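Before we proceed, please read the two lines closing this message. Report back on whether the structure tokens fit the sequence:
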Amino acid sequence: MNRMKSIQVMLLAVLLLILAACSNTAGQPASGEQSPAASQTRDQAAAEPDTRTITHLKGEAVIPAKIEKIVVLSAEYIDHLLTIGEKPSGVNTEVRYGGEYLPYMADKLQGVQTVGSADNPNLEAITLLDPDVILIESRTAENKYEQLNKIAPTIVLGNEWLDYGDDTSFWTKDLLTIAEMYDKTDVAKEKIAELEQKTVQASEKIKVLDNKKLAYLRVREKTLQVYAKQGHPTNALLYQDLGFEPAALTPEEQRADLSLEKIPELGADFIVLEVDSNARDFLDNMQASALWKNIPAVQGGKVHETDSFWLFKGWGVIGRGEIIDEIMAWLEQ
């Protein structure tokens, strides 16, 4: 009897040990298996590819999904990157501004390596940066694409304005492509929408002006030129988006030389003057001329000498916003 009782006690103890072991391993994967949480993490990682494919003017480029370093050889694409909150590792210089950053973006580019001009990039400096991606425009690609593409996947953007007809928002196409590279198309669209709202507000103020004929002039070393109604996004911003009317003698698609004798025929109520750094003597002589002094804009004090990089600014959200701010401040004077 006592022996039977001892066996029962031992069996009970063994049963309790087995139950305890089962309790401790409940919910745990069997040997060689992953927990549901680990499996979910693995599946998420598998769902996020390491690369993405971008279609551009030279075909397709396979680039990292997470870009750490990018070299940019175009002022407009630098504007696009900064617009979506990304900072390049290397940028081209602008020879006409002393081989440095474009002034209107300089404060946002401090510390960024310069790698030569877009036409003549410093291939050694670019190689030392070890970029994940290189971003260039079509003109640079004509001579440098093959060399750059050996350093890193090189994406070629851009096109001629006239290919876009009357689409004044064509410049946003490249912004959206760059935003796609960073999975930031929503950010880009938000910035474009903010700029559109700003443009509409400015155009409403211009619309009510009784006289709004504008001439956009460039003073060069020995010549005066008048910019066209189309042919460049800055021109489209002034005439199509903001609603200034082209002054007489404004060409339709390509800028043209303008003799001093023809100046009185402009009949401009507003004049924007872009002055080259070597054009001061020509400008002084022109402004001393009686022909110049008889233009309505000159008589009304509506001549605005702007910086010499409006043509760069017209390509991006940051630059176009600054042009609008400048024009609004000018009109309120």
About this structure: Residues 32 and 321 are 59 Å apart (CA to CA). The chain has a mean pLDDT of 87.
